[in-house]
Structure formats: structure tokens, C-alpha cells
Fold this protein.
Amino acid sequence: MLKRETKEYSDEAILKKMNPLVGSWFTGKFKSFSPPQSHAILNIHNKESTLISAPTGSGKTLSAFLSILSELITLSEKGKLEDRVYCVYISPLKALNNDIEKNLKEPLEELEKLAGKDLGVRVAVRTGDTSQYERSKMLKKPPHILITTPESLSLILVAPKFRELLRGVDWAVIDEIHSLAPNKRGVHLSLSLERLQNISGRFTRIGLSATVSPLDEVAKYLVGLEDGKQRPCNIVDSGFIKKLDLKVTCPVESIIDATQQDLHEGLYTKLDKLISEHKTTLIFTNTRSATERVVHHLKQNFPKKYIENIGAHHSSLSKTHRHEIESKLKNGELKVVVCSTSLELGIDIGYIDLVILLGSPKSVSRALQRVGRSGHKLHDTVKGRFIVMDRDDLVECSVILKNAMEGHIDKIDIPKNCLDVLVQHIYGEAITEKQHSENLFSMIKRSYCYKDLPLEKYESVLGYLAGEYVSLEARHVYAKIWWDHETNMIGRRGKLARVLYSTNIGTIPDESFLIVKVKDQNIGSLDESFLERIKKGDIFVLGGSTYRFNFARGMTVQVSPAPGRVPTVPSWFSEMLPLSYDLAVDIQKLRRKMEELLVSGKSKREIKKFLHTHLYIDDFAANSIYEYMREQHLYAEIPHDKKMVIEFYSGFSDKKYVIFHTLYGRRVNDALSRAIAYELSKISKRGVSINLTDNGFYITSDKGKLQVLRAFKAVTPQNIRKILTEAIDSTEILKRRFRHCAGRSLMILRTYKGRKKSAGRQQVSAMILLKAVKRISDNFPILEEARREVLEDLMDIKNAENELRKLHSKKTVVKIIATDVPSPFSLNLIARGYMDVIKMEDKLEFIRRMHKAVLDRIGKYEPNK
């Protein structure tokens, strides 16, 4: 039922089917149809659902709208244009919605000028920012093209008067679908589309995406199922139609030998040079703090160059500031803008001729999305530069570059059977009309995200909503629907149902900062997501001092001073992007190939030649990667996709580290390290510390012998889910995620009778409710969902199980080594454990000192010529 569209229709064939006025406007404005347009327009004209994957500036949005505008104008010319919504356009960003409104109104004005009359095709935006006056106007004169967000769509589905305007919707356009499908906003939208279909009848679904994989899965997500069978969808893959000019570069000659001063001066000299050589440069960092730091240092180092022509853009800045930066970029008033992830999606920011990526973007799709912001027109070259600051980043970015050039994209994961999101939609359907629960279940299973939903889980959610857990009423959780078990009919309960629904739905949780206290004294604040990685006894840094975490209550964290203690949770952890699993596997394959070449005795020249041809990198990068791999090979073992290395390292003050070289990405490593540490704590009857990165993790303790291998053997692909479920049971991570799920499932009302409940009060309520639901049932649906979210969305238990299966079937071997100096691949991981308590200069000095010790050990070996 999925079809790859290979036929490219001629301009003449497309224009023949198009309204003559629209055809004249198009040929007068553009030379010819772009590849996505020539593949997609006629399919959409024939009312066939279509997924279009193409880079920014390739004309994919116009691919979706040309057929729609053509049909609407034909109806207008015949006097048959009705007062109803014909097309719903949905995007994840309000800013993108405003761009689309402008980009549709301009062609309509030009078409009216060409026609010499008013065509009467209306376009309007309806989001949370739309005033009541504008909403009322829409009821009197409804837009023919409605532009909205996933959240606003689910609101208008229960608005009685607006629902009537949706009867007969012909098209739904979902933009930036790649950013929605892998999260709960996308799950929410998938059910809204099925509910829309119940109102309107079948409509054509059009998905617009940047480069994404696997396209088949995204297409299935877009169209859903009918009677248990996949609905048809055409896939237009124009993901690599632009020329790519991408390079990996380093600001210093030798990363490992450079001082902090060398790196700092080299980075900003290189940035200034690249910015000066281009008209407008966009710099991506991976964290908000790095964004502010880069802007500050560019201004400080080049005070005459960067004054009013530079800007920062990230999600923590005010909406007004972000809009001002976007507007200045569009108008060409800025030379350079530095951002974190906030400008990745396709809002119109004008002409960018260079994108710089500081550090690894952690996935090929994210790299292409970022560099794709340059060269906005179809025939422009996409120009991007990866600037790397350490050897792990160099290897990572080199493999990303190879995969980007060769079109290998990492896969996204689409969440399945999210019970908290399901609650909102069942409630919304009960509000609109009484209905049979089996009919509702059939509708839910049309969504790709719920196609495998078990009946018992659906009924457990119905039971919760119908108030069958009576003891929850003591915690102010009341029935929201009625469910007649004899007739199997359901319906809404209470006069406030519609108000409660409209003020509490959505999937994005209220986030806040946590106040950190030593007894009654405030000492600072923490990002809430930071608390998800922390457990009782962990040491972290705040304001340059170290503290021991004791407990959290609501949005207050109680700590004790811990001077001189090494942090067990780095302060940067919560902000870092996780490495994609597919990319991690590709890096491991490169490591295996390098080991094969080194073992076979190939010369340095031969190995560097392989690196040049395999990775598209320059001589310096090839030399650095060669030296890095060779040092690890001579000193220890190279871990790769068929070999896990466990390194026992005796650290400072007799501290023992057990380092797992598991380059699987942080989500998999989070699952593996927690499971092993939990088993170890049961064996040794004491707590242990964990630190992890994308490349591996270590377990350490100040006291006694660590029986890590025994604990590791106790974790199997069959029991890791059970172990992790127990391991997270009393942790902050489950408490926080339960609050998010309880908010989505309306156990905790964020807004009630006009009063907003703060994130802190929500958290206190959630902790009380968590205890209550555990007493009711360990399988309570919202508790189940909180656990699923931690294990499947935050961690990656699926691939953790996959790696354990490979170990147990001997497809992956385990090599155990012992070191008194960390192996080269361990240096970054060990140093990052100290990163918060030692200066960056000292961290680099530590790495250089350890590196020199490694070189001294392997000095007896003759280097390859």
C-alpha cells in the first residue's frame, strides 16, 4: 500500500491538470517545477495521500498547496466555494504558521490581481495566540485553509460550532512531520487526525518532511490504518537533490597537544575568519549556555566587528527577543546568529550562506537539518562546517559527514501505545457525543501509534476515566466519563467537562527550575531535567561548590555541602543531545575496520589512504584519527560492534573504576549502566556511582572490591526490563515523569476554574498520587505509562536488549583489561567526571598528562611508517 513515486511528470502534464489561472501565475513566477513538485503535485491533485521528503528551499510546501489552491480557485470561479474548511495545515511551530499564512496570502493576492477580481479564498491562523474576536470572525466567515498546531486542532475538534465547519475537509497538510512523529505531540496528532476523519470523512493526507528515515514508517504514521490494513500512501523522496559542501575542521593543528588557550584562540580566530568570508552565518551549538558563551566571546575578542550585527537565539530567551532576531535575519541585518536547537525547523529566516556546527550534532538527520538552513533556494549549494574540539568529536563528525554525503540517515523511533495521550482523546470523544466503546476502540486502532493497543489496556484507561478507582477521590481525582458496562456506551460527566478539556490538554509538560537549599538557605537553582539523572547520595556542582543530593520535595531540592568530593553527575548532562544509536553503530564499524588494518600490519600511509577514501576528510583529520586508533590498539583493545571492552582502572586515592566501552549512545548506556548498578548494589549492599557518555560508562566506588562482572552477568535481555522497572521505582526520574503523565492524563489539572497550578504544586500532588496508585495496582495505567516513557522514550531499552542478545549469543565478545593509566578511549569519560571541579585548563592538562603516559607505555613499539 506504500508506493515510492518514481514517475516525474512533465511541466506540460501538470499544467494541463491545473487551473489555468494558477498555471499562468506559476509559470510567470517560476521557471519550472522542482523535483518534489513534479513527483507530487498530480498525486495530490488525484486526492492520493503523499509524504514528501525534501530539503528546505526545494519547494515542498508549494508541492502541497498548488493542487489545493488550484481546486479552491476552480470552485470560486464556478461559484461553488462553500463557507467551510477545505484544508487543515498543521505545524509544530506558531512562527512557522505565521510564515505559511503570509506565504499563502501573497500568492492569493497575486492571483486576484491576475484575475482582476476577488477570488474569495480565505486563509486564517488559529493557535493559542488567536484572539477571541478572531475566533468569532472565523465562525461567521470560516477560512478555506485553516492553519493551526496539533494542540489547537484537538481543541477545535470539541468546539460544537467549529466542528460543523470541518465536515467535508478534503486535505490535511502536516508540516515538519519528522519533528512530530518521534514524540508525544506526534502521537497526540495521530489520534486528532482520526477524530477529524470521523467528522469529515476520508481526506487526503500530505506530510512534509526534511530528510528523515525510515520513510516507510513515517508514511505509515501519516496515513494510519483502515479495517486493520495499511492505508495507501505515495512517498516522494527528494532528500538529496541539493549539492553538499560539507567539511570537518579543527581550530588547532593537534587537538591532544593543544592548551585551553590554544583551543580558545584557535576556535574564535577560525569562527571570525569563516564569518568574515560569508554574508550571513548561522552557528549551531548543542546547549543554551554554549550559545551565550560563543556570542559573548565573539563580542569580547572582536569588539569592533560584532556589536549590533550578532545575535543569540534559544528557547530560554523571550518570544519578543526571538522574533526580533528572526526578523533581523530575514531582513539581512545580522552578520551572524548563534543558536542551540531553536532554528532547526523551517521557519523563514532569509538567506544564510554558511552554517557552522560547533561539536557533533549527534545524528545525521539533525546535521542535514541544520546545514540545510543554508542555500535556501533549490539550486543553491548547502554549505556547512563541523568544528571539532576533541578526538571523539572528530571521529563522530567524520562519520556523520560520510553518512550525510552518502545518504545514510539514522532512524527515528515512533512512540507506541502512550496511555496518557489516549486519556485526553477518549475524554474529548466522550465530550462530543455518547458512543459505543467498541467503535471508539476501532477509531483509536486506526492510528499507527495505537494499532497494537491491547483491549485490556484500553479498558483500564476507560476504567480510570470512569472513576472505578474510588480511592482516588480522596486525592481529588474524580470520574470524567460514564461507562455503562451493559450497553458498552460511554459519555461525558459533569458540566465543566468541555472547560476542563480545553484548559488542560496537550503533551508538553510545565517545566520549572528547582530551588536548591541547604536546610533553609537558598544556594541556587537547577534545571528540572537535571534531577532526572540524580539519586540520593549523588554529588554535583552548583556555583563552583560541590553538594550531596539528599531529597527533593515539590520544586525544592535539599542538599548538604560536600567540599572536595568528585561529582557523580556532571552539570552539563541534562542539556546534551544523545547520540543516535544508528550513528553509534556506524562509528563502531569504523573502529572494527581500523583494528583489522592495524592487526594486519598495514602501514600508516595505507591506513590514512583508507581514511581519506572512506570518510571524505583532509590529511590532518586522517592523521588524528589514525593516531587515536593506533594508540588505543597498542595500549589496550579497540572496542567495536563485535567486541565490548571492560576496563578496570585504578584511579586516584585508590578509587576503582570499571569502564564499559559501549559506544551505543547515551540512551542505551543509561539503561545498561542503571541495570548493572542496581544489580551491583543488591550484591554489595551499598551504593555506587555512575558516569556515562555516548561512548560508554563507568561504575565506581570509594570502598572495597566491586563485583561488577557478577552484576553484569546477572543482566540479561530477558530480565533487563524487570530490573530497570525496579531500579527506577523510587527515583526522581520516575517521580518527575509520573507528574508529566499524570498531567497529560488529567489526574492533575494544571488549570482549574481559571487558576493555574504551579509546577511545584503539581509535583507535590504527583508524589502523593504516585503512592496512592501503587497501593491500588502496580499495573495502574498511568504508572505503567510513566515507566514506559522512562524506559522507551528517555532510555532506549529496545537497543539495550538488542546489544545484550548479541553478547549472550556470542556475536559480541567481551574483552577485559586492567590499566593504571586510562586507555585513550577512556580519557574523555574519566576527565568529564572531574569536569565540574577542575578548570577546563586542568582537564586538558590531565588528558595531556595521561596521553603522555600512554605514549610512554607504547613507545617500545615501532610506529607504522
